[in-house]
TrEMBL record:
Gene3D superfamilies per record: Medium-chain alcohol dehydrogenases, catalytic domain
This protein's UniProt keywords: NADP
Name recorded for this polypeptide: Alcohol dehydrogenase catalytic domain-containing protein
Coiled-coil ranges (or none): none
Pfam short name (any one): ADH_N
Domain Alcohol dehydrogenase-like N-terminal: 26-84
Amino acid sequence: MKAITYNAYGTPTRLELVDVPEPKVGPSEVLIRVKAAGVNPVDWKLAAGFLGQVLEVRHPVIPGWDVAGVVEAVGPDTDDYAVG
C-alpha cells in the first residue's frame, strides 16, 4: 500500500510517498481504503513539531486524521461497521 510519511519534523518538503505493509486489523479496529483525505491543524502542527510534547510521536509518521473511504476489513469485536 502507498502512504505519505515523514521521518522528521519540518516543512511539507519532508513528506514522502512510500510503500508500507498493509496494516493488520485489531479486534476492535476498522481498516479503511482511503479515497480522500484532508489536512487539518493537528496534522501540520504535529509535522512541524509543535505538538511533540502533547502527542506521542514515533517516526515514520503517516499523517491524516480526516479521511473518507471504503471499509476493507473489521475486527471481530467491531459491531458498528461492516465491509463495504
